[in-house]
């Protein structure tokens, strides 16, 4: 069977970029660009190449966003964030070359497996905390943390001598946080993105902190809230607020309390301590949340030790 021709706005397999990358296939597509799997010509290293949509190349805001994302990624280096390798501008297009991760988005894995085993959910959340520690220490707030922006590397096969054998869980690999396209750089009390955003709303409704919904200035505690939503979804099997429209979901973040995680069918599997940790992350008032990603991680480790 032959492959369908590429969409008009996509680069065809074999297309060379800046005489140093060759496109192999499409990995995913968003509102502002396409992510390709590509090979670096000099050594054959596989990379993820994030390319702005051609029809948006003249949009100043999108152009600045790509420049900003590249500048942010240069600040970040850690085992749980995806490393930036290169930034290319050619023929009016912007391209960010990223470390290629052989894995799947947590969003996809949750569709197949949620709710997941509690210890596994805690381990994933701990690794997301580590990514947030890296970002926050560099003065970066993600602002769009969600399962689609969390990659789980494909775990390697266990040694033949491993008791029980069998394939490892697809949720057992290393966790990486990706897509800092909506991130905000924080310098002390000054927050900058390079864009005019007074009163603008950024994020994904199901994972937005109340202060994001209101269009207020945010700090790292909005990422704590988003991680609370992700952890809730992993152990409960549903997001804290599920409504018919995005506006209704955003309103619920401001006005409603989520159902306690232990109120459903998984009551016996979720400890009272873990429930308290999750609900603290979901506090409406940022001052009532875990004060940092490290504090969130410490609380999760304490829950795991008491199990």
UniProtKB/TrEMBL annotation:
<dbReference type="Pfam" id="PF00069">
    <property type="entry name" value="Pkinase"/>
</dbReference>
<dbReference type="InterPro" id="IPR008271">
    <property type="entry name" value="Ser/Thr_kinase_AS"/>
</dbReference>
<dbReference type="GO" id="GO:0004674">
    <property type="term" value="F:protein serine/threonine kinase activity"/>
</dbReference>
<keyword id="KW-0808">Transferase</keyword>
<dbReference type="InterPro" id="IPR000719">
    <property type="entry name" value="Prot_kinase_dom"/>
</dbReference>
<dbReference type="GO" id="GO:0005524">
    <property type="term" value="F:ATP binding"/>
</dbReference>
<keyword id="KW-0418">Kinase</keyword>
<keyword id="KW-0067">ATP-binding</keyword>
<protein>
    <recommendedName>
        <fullName>non-specific serine/threonine protein kinase</fullName>
        <ecNumber>2.7.11.1</ecNumber>
    </recommendedName>
</protein>
<keyword id="KW-0547">Nucleotide-binding</keyword>
<dbReference type="InterPro" id="IPR011009">
    <property type="entry name" value="Kinase-like_dom_sf"/>
</dbReference>
<dbReference type="InterPro" id="IPR017441">
    <property type="entry name" value="Protein_kinase_ATP_BS"/>
</dbReference>
<feature type="binding site">
    <location>
        <position position="50"/>
    </location>
    <ligand>
        <name>ATP</name>
    </ligand>
</feature>
<feature type="domain" description="Protein kinase">
    <location>
        <begin position="21"/>
        <end position="301"/>
    </location>
</feature>
<keyword id="KW-0723">Serine/threonine-protein kinase</keyword>
